[in-house]
Specification:
Blueprint (H helix, E strand, L loop, with lengths): L2 H125 L7
Length: about 130
C-alpha cells in the first residue's frame, strides 16, 4: 500500500471517528436534555407527593377528631342506655305496684259491694212491715 493510500485510509478513519464523536456528542446532548426533562418531572412529582402528604395529614387529623367525637357520642349513648334501663326497671316496678294496687282496689270494691248489699238487705228488713200475728 502506498503512502497516499495509507493517508486516504487514515483520513477515512478520522472522518469516521469525527462522525462518531459528533453522533456521541449529539446523543449526549439529547440524553442531557432528557435528563433535564426527567428532573423537572421528578420535581413536579415530588411537589405533588408533598401536597398529598399534607392533605393526608389533614385528613388523618380530621379522622382523629371524628374518632374522638364518635367515642364521646358512644359514651353518651352508653350512659343514656343505662339511664333508660334504670327508667324501664323503675317503670316495671311501678307497673307491678299499680297491678297490686288495682288488685287490692278490686278486692275492696268486691267487699264494698258485699257490704252495700248486706246493708241494703238490712234496710229492707227494717222498712218492711212485720206481719201481725192473730
Amino acid at each position: 500500500m502506498t503512502n497516499a493510500q495509507r493517508l486516504d485510509h487514515v483520513e477515512d478513519e478520522l472522518e469516521t471517528v469525527k462522525r462518531l464523536l459528533v453522533s456521541t456528542a449529539s446523543y449526549a446532548e439529547s440524553a442531557g436534555r432528557r435528563l433535564d426533562q426527567l428532573t423537572i418531572k421528578q420535581d413536579r412529582t415530588q411537589s405533588h407527593l408533598d401536597e398529598l402528604t399534607i392533605k393526608q395529614d389533614r385528613t388523618q387529623s380530621h379522622l382523629d377528631q371524628l374518632t374522638i367525637k364518635q367515642d364521646r357520642t358512644q359514651s353518651h349513648l352508653d350512659e343514656l342506655t343505662i339511664k333508660q334501663d334504670r327508667t324501664q326497671s323503675h317503670l316495671d316496678e311501678l307497673t307491678i305496684k299499680q297491678d297490686r294496687t288495682q288488685s287490692h282496689l278490686d278486692e275492696l270494691t268486691i267487699k264494698q259491694d258485699r257490704t252495700q248489699s248486706h246493708l241494703d238487705e238490712l234496710v229492707d228488713d227494717k222498712t218492711r212491715p212485720y206481719p201481725i200475728s192473730p
